[in-house]
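Progress narrative, Year 2. Work on Poly(3-hydroxyalkanoate) synthetase from Paramagnetospirillum caucaseum advanced from sequence curation to structure prediction during this period.
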Amino acid sequence: MAEQTGTDSKMIDAAELSKAMTSIAERSQRIVTDFLTRQAADPTAATADPLNIGNAFMEMTAKLMSDPAKLVEANLNLWQDYMSLWQNTARRMLGEETQPVATPDSGDRRFKDEMWQENEIFDFIKQSYLLSARWMQGVVKNVEGLDDHTAKKVDFYTRQFVDAMAPSNFVLTNPEVLRATVETRGENLLKGLNNLLDDLERGKGNLAIKMTDYDAFKVGDNIAVTPGKVVFQTDLMQLVQYDPSTPQVFEKPLLILPPWINKFYILDLRPKNSLIKWAVDQGHTVFVVSWVNPDEKLAHKGFGDYMLEGPLAAIDAIEKATGSRQVNAAGYCLGGTLLACTLAYLAAKGEDRIASATFFTTMTDFKDPGELGVFIDEEQLSALETRMNQAGFLDGRDMATTFNMMRANDLIWSFVVNNYLLGKDPFPFDLLYWNSDSTRMPAAMHSFYLRKMYQENRLVEPGGIELNGVKIDLSNIKTPIYMLSTREDHIAPWQSTYALTQHVAGPIKFVLSASGHIAGVVNPPAANKYCYWTNTKKPKNPEVWLAGATQVEGSWWTDWQKWAEKFAGKQVPARVPGSGKLKAIEAAPGSYVRVRAV
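Result:
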């Protein structure tokens, strides 16, 4: 694209530039045509506001204008802050030392370039943005009279706007991008435009931001490589049994139920951080449910089907494979919600097939679901159901976008800057590959889950939901429980997950790990990272629990192992997948997990 001149400066080749721009124009036309065709076929495309954001902001504005004194006060405070900023900037330009009026949070990586601090102009731009952002978010948060849901929605989408408007997201106000543009004579922007078109083409007109090098990873080759065999399958799942690594194993196998919102190999990314491999090495006979990536043929599958064809079918299959009537079960996120339903279902039938249950970041009481609640109201659910009923499923990209918006600076705007403004390719990162490997949701199941649990919070009501003719009552659960939540979880807030301790009848140990929804769970002992908190008491208030908890350094994995051994039974000879009554179907990780939605 560029050639070296005698002065060793980069110059754009006019012929190559013309060729590149012609290609860009042709690709853009194809993308727009394809996008408009898809929009014309989408029954919800004509809906002006499917997220019902406009009504929320109109209500907020009406409440705000009813108390103009507050708005005047906020504006005066902003004006005073700006006056201080202007004065400080002028003094800096005269060589004086000044203290900043506004500073970014310590973890805010948008302003890590040294020019944001050292250059007076960029420092002014940065502080001006921070003051405006603080003012805007403060105004909408202090509006009185809004119902809780509307207030959270206004706050969430205000933050989305504030994040989008950051000066780091624009060429002329990002010093790192300006420097790259000068050094490459604009080649970074041309490369970034091509990256943008690549992402639009991959998303068929919708922006599918590339977060990592997708060619650097392959499921079964360099991620999800713990050896094992698929020994059983249904329409909804494959059951993977892993090869033993010890001559003796615990009598009762360990069944892991991952969420079907994501793929199971988050628990088996690499050998050094694989919870699956670690559990095998501790002497467990490990079985994992690998959920199907459903298409329109499975649109009718409901939550009850996931229970029948998932954990209940798996427990029967494991008995055939190992001879053990009981299992120890672990459920992660939505897989944990399904496990709770399964425990209540078995209790209602008087069956004790599960000796112990472990929950990772699991919601059962959805009274306060955190920021995910922003997306749950009648208008949004109706629009979502219209789309799902037409396609037969929820597109995995929709769910991925929702989760990414909750951490927009890290999972959206950092890639906009890196890929489109700096023109760089994203770094190979296994976790982000997994994050991009999205899964679909069957229409019937997802509608039931969102309405009965998130919107109506019926799971915590005795008999509030019914699965396959059985009324579910969590208070009937007497199975010993180990519950792991994470302190910085933005998907399943730990204060909400804690509620399960008050809803079951059996013994329950609640443990809180540092970090978030993924890193707090996938935290091998060898890494010696983070910490966790324990407390033998179960007060109703989670904050009271934390105040009385003991902090322990390192991974919770070893604490869980000590607990799990109590219910794992005696030592027996190791079981090899396929050697029992269930024969091996194919090698782990199986074929279901390899199906990509995008």
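The longest strand covers residues 354-360. Residues 278 and 524 are 8 Å apart (CA to CA).
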